Each structure stands twice: as C-alpha cells, then as structure tokens.
Amino acid sequence: MAALMRCRNRMPPVISHCRPWHNYDGRVYVTSIFEGSYRGLANVTTTGNAGQKKKKFSEMVNDNRDRAFRSLLVRLGDEGMDKGLLAYCSQHGKVKHSFTYDGQDRYAVVEYAEQNDVLELLKKAKPPRSQSKMPFRSRLLNFSGGDAGNVKTKKKRRTTSARNTGKDLQESFLRKLSNAESVDDQMLLLLREQAMPDEDVHLRFLICSLVEEAVDKIVPSCRVYPFGSSVNSFGKVGSDVDMYLEINSENGVVPRKTGRHQYQMLFDTKSAASERAATQQTLATMATYLEEFVPHCANVQKILNARCPIVKFYHQATGLQCDLSSNNRIATKSTELLYLYGNHDPRVRPLVFTIRHWARVNSITSGVPGPWITNFGLTLLVIYFLQTRAKPVVPTVNYLRDVSDEEDHLLVENVDCTIASDLNRLAPSQNEQSLEELLYEFFEFCAKFNFQKFALSLRHGEKFSKPESGNPLYIENPFETELNITRNVNYDHLQRFVTKTQEALWIIDKSESRVKDVKNMKNSTDIQPWGLANLLIAVGTSKRGLRSKSLLLNEYISPIFQSLDVTQSSAASSSAKDAANNNENANAQTAAATGHRTKATRSGHSDRDADVTSDNPNDGQMKLISKRKTLKLKSR
Predict the structure, then answer these.
(1) Which of 285, 352, 390, 422, CA to CA, is 20 to 30 A from 130?
(2) CATH number for the domain that contains residue 560
C-alpha cells in the first residue's frame, strides 16, 4: 500500500504545542502574554525522550492543583490591557506564568510563584456594592482602568467565529494532512491539532480550585478534582469538565460508647436513608450554592436520580460545561488507568485520537447520549486491540496490578482497583510497528472480530464468551468486571461501526493508485487528500469527485449488509427476501470484479485473533480487502 507504507520505520517525534493556539474546528483559544516555557499536562504525556522519568498520575494532579491555587482568572475590561495587568500583578509578587484567551470577553490567567502573593493581591481587590456580602473571596476578578489605549503593544481583539470559519478551517486542516510526508506524520498532526494544550488543562484545574474554595464554606475540608478527559491524556479541546467532590470533613466528630471501656469515633452528620441519598442531598445543596453565590456558574441543573448523581453547570468565564459528582472514586481510578496507557507508549495517543476523530466524522460517536459507542468505550476498544498484538503495545490491567507496590493497593466498595502508579515500573513494549500499520490493523481487527459471540476483557487482554446479557457489544469494565462499558450500544449502531471499519479498509486500498499523482501535484490549489485525509472525508460530502457514494454502495457496502445480517427473528417478510436476493446479486458482481485479491494473514496480528475470525460471519467479505499483504511484501 503506497498510500500507507511510506516512512513506516520512523518513530513519532515528541509533540510540542505552539502559540498562538488555533483549534482547527474554529475556536481561537489561547495567545500568550509573554514568551517562555509553560509546564502543563503535555509535559508528562509526551514520552519520546529516552530515559526521561515519567510522572505518576498523583504527581501530575498535585502539581496542577498547586499551580491552580497560585493563579488568578481576570477579565480584562478594555482592549490592550495585557501589559497593564502584568505590571499591576507584578507589584504584588513574582508572576511565574500568564496567558490570555478570548471567550465572550477577554480573560487572562496569572500564575504567581507563591500562594501568599495571591492573598496579598486579593486584599487590594474590592467587590462591587451588590456583592459586598460575599461569603468568600473569589480569585475570579475584573481588571479595568488605566490608559489602555496608549499601550504600544496593543493587540487586535480576535473575533473569529467558528460558525463563519469552521468550513475554511476544516479545509485548511485537510490540506495540512495532505501535505504531510507520511501517515505517521498525519496522525501526529491530528494529535497536535486536537489534544488539549497546557493552558486548557490549567484552566480546568483552575475552575475546580475556584469551586473548591467556594463550597468549602458549606462542605469544610472538601476537595474538587478534575477527572476523565481533562486529565487522562486523551482530552480534546472544548470537551466537558468532569469534577469529583471528595468529602473529607474532620468536623463534627463525637465519641460513642460501644461497650465497657471501649469507644469509637464516628462522624456526626445529618441523617440520610442511604449513602446515595446523602450524596444527593449534598449535591442538591451545592447546586443551590453555586447558582446563588459562585461567580460565572450559570444554567445550574440537578440530575440527582441518574446512576451517578451529578450537578451540571456552565462556567461562563471559560465557556466550558461542567459536571460535578461525588462518591465516584472508581471513575477517578479509571481516569488514572487511561493516563497510564496514554503515557506508556508514544503511539497510543495518536492512534486513539485518530480513531476517535474518524468515528466522529462517520457519525459513529456523538456528543449526546444515545445507543452509540462513547469515546470512552472506543478508547477501551483501541487499548484492547493494542494489548492483543503478537507483541503487545500496552500491558493488561492484571499486569499493572502485578507490578504494583504496597502503597498502590486500593479497595473501593469491595472492588479491587489496584494498579501500578509508577509508570517507570512498566516494561517498555517490544512492538516496533508504525502508527500506520497499527491503524490499518485496527480497522481489520474490528471488521473481522465476531462481536456477536465474544466479549472483550482489558483485565486479561483476552476475549471470552459473551454473557447472556443481550448486549450486541460487550467490553468488560476494567475494575467492575460484572459491568459492560458499552451496554448502551444497540445492534444497528454496532453494525454501522463494523460497516465503517470495512469501508475504511476499502478506501485505503482504493486510494493507493492515486497517491503518486497526488504528491506530484504540489502546485494545485485543490485539496488532494491521501492517506488519513481520505479517511476523514465523510462519504457523500466530498467535492471534486474525490469519492462516489454510489460506488461504495454498489461495490462494497451492499455485500457488507448481507454479511452482517444475523438471525434476530424466526421469520422474515417477502420484501426482506427480495432484498436479500438483490444483495446476493451484488455480492456475485463484487466477487467477480475483485476475484484477483487473495486473503493473507498479517504478521502483526496476535494468535489470539486467529480463532476469533474462524466462525465470524464477516469473514467472507474480508476477501475484498486482502490485497494489502502482497503490496506490503513488495514494498519491502
């Protein structure tokens, strides 16, 4: 495959974010006030430097929390006040880092070297008269006044609208992909465009610190942590902020006599029918408090009857949607698990970002709840795939438990959540496959895997017979192994996912003959996609005849629907039989047109995958995409 086989032995370089930051979907995000390095989550998620010590998840969280509590979030009242703010803040202590961003207004984040400097500045700040009785001092401030108009370094306000420029930015992004030298470079470019920059991570920790300071008045000694995509190394710009409220009050303790000369210390709390009821009451109180007293917390909603009760609110200053939950420690441990996988091998994050973006373009995933696979479920599917290579790229959850030390042992509600916290204890992968090889093999794996019969276990890195649950797709929860992460996915959406993976293989094979001509047309003003760019153009939406929807339906998609047709009822209508006959005719035509292709077993597959496909109903259609092996051998 000329399109996907160039530069296969080159390892991914270390990614560094550039400023100003422009996300390709149209959101103008961050510009820096001054030049200088900024240490954020990317510094610990990039593992390309040999011998570089990797941070523990807890170390990363504590470092970012410390920076957040040393920071101010300031709304700039006028144009060109960046320098004025920096000069003013410098009068009260040493400013370590700062940056600005545009939302509904222009904001700056100023990080001091010492937290005491923040307290000194807050003493100088004055609340508006309407808020003179605020129960706490917020670090979300307004800065105005001065002679801002005469600042020589005044910067023009950015007012780019995603609605007006999204299409242009999409085309610009596709052009960048098409100009890349290899598929590996394309995947790394996509990672750089979509992954959270350091400033975004800092903002999320800052929001949590602001909420924590506010609710400390009603829930003393609590802590608010971000979890999920904000800190698991797979976060995308603009994604929601998941927050976890950890209640660790030391107040209200009273002695209770339990027997002669025997005593216990118990927390004296307001009674509740159950722990769940107590969590609901706490979140309900916090929702009211956020709405009434905490600046920039708007559209507060109580969703207390969900499996995991949450409070949703919109943070106006950052433009981020926030979900606050409590008593959700297993979810935070799942966040740490993904963090370990994302930082264990430099190929994991580019591969996950590429597949998730491909899934979004093809409407396999969605930003709203529904019967489709979630980004979390899709990420776990990619990790399982990486576990089951002939030479695994990432280890199993059981391996992470086996190499843990005593301080890592954790039991949450009788669930064993023990995994190694030290990334440096994990043996490096012996797998040397390129990103493009892994991408192709992922599509091939999903197109051939028998999801009807088998479930997937990340804990063991193996498939197993699917329980009698009626779920079309079954991915075992890594910790609560009796639960199915993808229980919401219905048959139609699973079928669509498999269809799209087979279509991706077809696109890769079809595009190979066009690559050489495309790369020789560097002076063309038209977008000439190849490799990954071809996969990211939705079927039927491309221009200039780059892809034909009818061609796909006639040559490839129609046979797939027949191959995926499983028996779900004892009888079928006569119209369904006619449709099946039409599919048989399409199959015969496709087989005749592609009879020259031969099936080959790829060397990168695990032995554990071989028996998966032996009774797979999709196996017959994979003959359409078997050309890659022969071409790969020729290229070598």
Answers:
(1) 285
(2) 1.10.1410.10
The pairing of strands 140-143 and 71-76 is parallel
- 217 is a domain residue: no
Between 220 and 12, the higher pLDDT residue: 220
Domain membership of residue 152 as a residue range:
18-167
Q: How far apart are CA 594 and CA 613, in angstroms?
A: 21
In a domain, 241, yes or no: no
Q: What is the pLDDT of residue 25?
A: 36
pLDDT at 254 over 90: no
- 370 within a domain of the structure (yes/no): yes
Say yes or no to pLDDT of 594 above 90.
no
pLDDT(556) > 80: no
Closest among 580, 510, 519 to 539, alpha carbons compared: 510
The C-alpha angle with vertex 248 and arms to 292 and 405, in degrees rounded to 5, equals 135
Is 625 inside a domain boundary?
yes
Q: How far apart are CA 483 and CA 475, in angstroms?
A: 8
Q: Which of 187, 130, 224 is nearest to 15 (CA)?
A: 187
Calpha distance 601→598 (Å, rounded):
10
Residue 176: pLDDT over 80: yes
The three-state secondary structure class of 88 is helix
pLDDT at 543 over 50: no
| Long-range contacts, 511-519 (Cβ 8 Å, 24+) | 511/3, 512/1, 512/2, 512/3, 512/4, 512/631, 514/3, 515/2, 515/3, 516/2, 518/178
- Verify cis geometry, omega within 30 degrees of 0, for the bond prior to 13: no
User: Has this prediction a pTM greater than 0.90?
Assistant: no
Domain edge (last residue) among 128, 145, 167 = 167
